[in-house]
């Protein structure tokens, strides 16, 4: 198993930036592909970005492509989400998730991710 703890959320004005981090503990971090998801009030949890176990492959939701960047440091057991040009519609609770997966494919479906953090709130004011 892996335990995940997110940090870095907060309040920012539209156009600003935030960097979210997720610290993992437990099983070998590089055994997992990692993803970020978000959930706004009254909406379903949606995919934001994912990165393969090696960091060699990434995938993004269309809504954040070009503004957000996912990265990982397997030596430090962390995955990060750099969020630039934030919009009010980016406001949500952001969750880090882990998929036990050392394959070449990474997934946007939340059902593929067995392990989740507790979430961190991001609020973007216009």
Explain what you see.
The protein is mainly beta. It contains no helices and eleven strands. The protein has strands at residues 2-7, 10-13, 18-26, 32-39, 46-51, 58-60, 68-73, 78-83, 92-100, 115-116, 120-125. The strands form two sheets. Strands 2, 4, 5, 6, 9, 10 and 11 form a seven-stranded mixed sheet that branches. It has a four-stranded antiparallel sheet with strand order 1-3-8-7, with no helix packed on it.
Give the mean pLDDT.
97
> What is the molecular shape?
globular
Number of strands: 11
Structural class: mainly beta
| Count, helices | 0
Distance between the termini: 40 Å
Radius of gyration, CA atoms, in whole angstroms: 13 Å
Could you give the order of the helices and strands?
A: EEEEEEEEEEE
Strand coverage percent = over 45%
Pick out the low-confidence regions: none
**Secondary structure: helix percent:** under 10%
Largest sheet: 7 strands, mixed
Describe the structure concisely for a colleague.
With 126 residues, the chain is mainly beta. Helices cover 0% and strands 52% of the residues.
Q: What are the defining features of this structure?
A:
126 residues, four-stranded antiparallel sheet, mainly beta, seven-stranded mixed sheet
Topology:
Elements: E1 2-7, E2 10-13, E3 18-26, E4 32-39, E5 46-51, E6 58-60, E7 68-73, E8 78-83, E9 92-100, E10 115-116, E11 120-125
């Amino acid at each position: 198993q892996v335990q995940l703890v997110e940090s870095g959320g907060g309040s920012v004005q539209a156009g600003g930036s935030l960097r979210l981090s997720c610290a993992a503990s437990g099983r070998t971090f590089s055994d997992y592909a990692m993803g970020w998801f978000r959930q706004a009030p009254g909406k379903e949890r949606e995919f934001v970005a994912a990165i393969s176990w090696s960091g060699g492959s990434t995938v993004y939701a269309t809504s954040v492509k070009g503004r957000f960047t996912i990265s990982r440091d397997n030596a430090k057991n962390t995955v990060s989400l750099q969020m630039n040009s934030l919009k009010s519609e980016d406001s949500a609770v952001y969750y880090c998730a882990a998929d036990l997966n050392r394959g070449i494919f990474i997934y946007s479906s939340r059902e593929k991710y067995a392990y989740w953090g507790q979430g961190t709130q991001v609020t973007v004011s216009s």
